[in-house]
Amino acid sequence: MTGPLAGCRVLDLGIITAGAATSAMLADLGADVIKVESPGYHDPFRRWSGPGGADDSPFFRFTNRNKQGIGIDIKRPEGRAVFMRLVARSDVVVENFRRGVLAKLGIDYPQLRAVRPSIILASLSSHGEFGPDADRVSFGTTLEAMSGLAAETGYAGGTPTVSGRDLNYPDQVVAIFAAGMVVTAWHAAQGRQGVHLDLSQRELTSFLLGERFVQGASGQPRGNTDPLYALQDCYTSRDKAWIAVTVEQRQLPLLAGLVADSAVGRVHERLARWMATRTAEEAVEALAALGIAAATARDGNEAAQGRGISWWEAVGTLPDGSLAKGFPFQFEDEPMQLTRPAPSIGQDTAQVLQDLGGYTPQEISALRKDGVIECADA
Amino acid sequence: MTKPLQGRVVLEAVSPRSSWGVRLAAAFAGRIAADLGAQVVCLQPAGEAALPDTNAAIEEASALHSFLSAGKNVVTGVGDDAASTLAREIAGGANALLGDDWLRNAAAEALGQKLAAGVPRAIVQVDMLPRQHAHEPPASEFTVEAESGLLDLVGDACREPVRLAGHQVAYSAGLAAYTGMVAAFCRRGPQPPVVRVSLLETALWLNWKNLATVSIGETPATRSGQAMSWPVVRCADGWVAVVYQPHEWETLRDTLGDPRLRDPRFGTPAGRASHASELAALFEGSLARLTRGEVNALAARHRLPLGVVQSAGELADDPHYRARSFVRSVASDAGSVSLPRLPVLWSGELFAPGRIPARGMQEEETLA
After folding, report:
1. Is B127 on the interface with A (CB under 8 A)?
2. What is the rounded distance in angstroms from the CA atom of residue A255 to the CA atom of residue A261?
3. Given A161, A197, A233, which is nearest B155 (Cβ)?
4. Which of A9, A302, A350, B126 is the most exposed place for a label (fewest CB within 10 A)?
5. For residue B118, what is the domain's CATH number?
């Protein structure tokens, strides 16, 4: 691999989104990422209920590209020994299991460090490694509620609102942050010193609302307004689209002229009436001509149609032509690329055990026969 | 503990003409770098866009300054030409530029000139939209959220879409900017790597589930308010997000104890989805007698992922956050301020936010 993390090897125990997406971003940056699944417990994302049927859901394929995939039953002593042999030749382990699982498997940080003192262990969890809520079961939506975000989101004076499972916001942002922390640790240590990164998704979601902690916010949904702007809301166009509009203080007189009302207090009402007599395209164009930010609220289909026209990186193309998750940032000179599709179960087990673990084909065959490892059918 | 970015110098600056989205993204990335030990010099050229003349705007700007400037050296009020000159001078001793195209144009050539060869360097350019054209349309965080499809996901189906609170799009781009910057530090070459971040690409990346759904020709999700599978309902002293997976349904049903939840219509995920509003009303009826504390205890006891709604103000005293020292009291000229620390522990060590510089003050020692 090439890229900033070339030479960095990552064992990816991540499942579903948070951990798996963190490792994917490390792979995009050039790390050699090996996804480790257990024969008895494959990544649940492979068979996620929702769009795309049962086999290797599109969510799995979008998230796990650019990785190799192996199968080891770490619950068994023989499997743990195989895993630890790989750890001894790796730089990073990423996991987002329930707290306590690593210790039960005998692969917690002290044990990883015993075989690889420079190992970086990134532990992504809902609430962190310790604290009264550390063992609480949570999903992204739980964390939106418990972090302060839901309390502030929603219609003014209305019900606190969550983004829901279609977005699961905390699961997405943590991957960018966690990858950043792993890269920071890798950069700082230069392979000399290990570290255990305790990454709490609830804390990150709160951190993304940091100014509200300064204000000691009591938590009231504020609708679409933003105190930094004179006016911000959605308005319906004649062709029944929702148009998002943001008006800066200095733009108020211009807007008042456009909607033919100089009474600032009534601009909101007049803008709604003005919008209702124009198509979305006409309205956005007229507002943009005044320097006012306006855009149609797109649904998923409309947003996707902008690929290659108004955006390029968020979704990428694999060598086989299929689409997969792209990049939230990009390098100008040596762009990150999608080079390989998500691995099938045990696709690279034999190769990785041979090349990295130093196992002979006979040993690999015996491990497979005993059910310690899982290999793709030849 | 030596902080991981100790010894690195980051120059953070945007043009006064840059939108709030770009400014907040760069500032957020800079705050992370400062917490991790970098010396972050934040150059704020004179001429910012005027804020609305309201208390809410003044309070918001002040809170943003406290949160985003902690631990930085802030240089304010420098005129256009002087700002460019100053940017070049500071860039000469800097490892990274973190800002917009104005900063890149002003200081890219000077970046790291006073540093030894082979030291890490990075140029991070943040934009609202992916590629700048001569007539780039005006954009805000809100309109980017609309274009990315994120806005369409939140709110009631019959009402206008509603944005995520705070500055989620800008801060997410800030996360991307930080990660891009430190990744660039890992590269060694004659030219500093240039990292491009746009709020729109980041927002679309966050919305990848919908884009994946569209890619296989299926119908993308849209907002469904209380009809969504995980509604937010009232309890005795607040609100609860009723989150559960299909395998947790029976536990939830039995825990809440309302016999009407045993109605066969609710027996399958599809049935529950079809009667989501009715189900939400039943959840509310069951939870109305319980306080959030009692809901928390119930959730912990039965291993249910219910989420009580807490505000930022309440979280400062939350026992879990206290145990993890997450909300810190930081000194500022205006007195003590509550700030969340960086949400990572480094082998158990936390990174406390640095002091909050006074607003509008020029840092003499930085300029010296």
Report:
1. no
2. 9
3. A161
4. A302
5. 3.40.50.10540
